[in-house]
Amino acid sequence: MRRHKIEFELSIFDSLEELPTEERRLMIMAVDARGMAYAPYSQFNVGAALLLDTGEIIKGNNQENASYPSGLCAERVAIFSAGANHPNAIIKAIAITAASEKIKVGSPVAPCGNCRQSIKEYEVKQGSPIKLLLMGERGEVYKCESVADILPLGFDSSYLG
Ligand code: THU
């Protein structure tokens, strides 16, 4: 029997103002996207902004549905939009933020399992990591160098041969 420990590093910034300019700008775009979320059922508004290697920023927000499972998270709205409209661009980073109309979202919000899997697909496709910037409504920002870090032992195309 062998034991193998999987660790990853998170950088924690006290606030948006502490981030380097390009990353701060990206998170501000995610906040902007958050404000346009369609979340009448959960009132949990999520915004995502992707930075492409072309310098372009692609935004997304959660889109809910009266038939709940038909809705989609902000991260997948954004990443599928990038995949559909900029298929050859490299995605450098994704900023994610959430605010609720019912409770205070005081700590950074991390993508759900389905979104981690979907973002990871594009890391594998492009052969380079996608940086994650995570924030609640405001306050601390977590930076993570790759989505693979938060999806250990993940499944990808390499298993399919
Ligand atoms: N949501 C996201 O948009 N991203 C996440 O990573 C977690 C959850 C959305 C889905 C749903 O519209 C609402 O937040 C409550 O779960």
From TrEMBL:
<dbReference type="InterPro" id="IPR016193">
    <property type="entry name" value="Cytidine_deaminase-like"/>
</dbReference>
<dbReference type="InterPro" id="IPR016192">
    <property type="entry name" value="APOBEC/CMP_deaminase_Zn-bd"/>
</dbReference>
<protein>
    <submittedName>
        <fullName>Cytidine deaminase</fullName>
        <ecNumber>3.5.4.5</ecNumber>
    </submittedName>
</protein>
<dbReference type="GO" id="GO:0008270">
    <property type="term" value="F:zinc ion binding"/>
</dbReference>
<keyword id="KW-0378">Hydrolase</keyword>
<dbReference type="GO" id="GO:0004126">
    <property type="term" value="F:cytidine deaminase activity"/>
</dbReference>
<dbReference type="InterPro" id="IPR002125">
    <property type="entry name" value="CMP_dCMP_dom"/>
</dbReference>
<dbReference type="GO" id="GO:0042802">
    <property type="term" value="F:identical protein binding"/>
</dbReference>
<keyword id="KW-0479">Metal-binding</keyword>
<dbReference type="Pfam" id="PF00383">
    <property type="entry name" value="dCMP_cyt_deam_1"/>
</dbReference>
<dbReference type="GO" id="GO:0072527">
    <property type="term" value="P:pyrimidine-containing compound metabolic process"/>
</dbReference>
<dbReference type="GO" id="GO:0005829">
    <property type="term" value="C:cytosol"/>
</dbReference>
<dbReference type="GO" id="GO:0055086">
    <property type="term" value="P:nucleobase-containing small molecule metabolic process"/>
</dbReference>
<feature type="domain" description="CMP/dCMP-type deaminase">
    <location>
        <begin position="21"/>
        <end position="158"/>
    </location>
</feature>
<keyword id="KW-0862">Zinc</keyword>
<comment type="similarity">
    <text>Belongs to the cytidine and deoxycytidylate deaminase family.</text>
</comment>
<dbReference type="InterPro" id="IPR050202">
    <property type="entry name" value="Cyt/Deoxycyt_deaminase"/>
</dbReference>
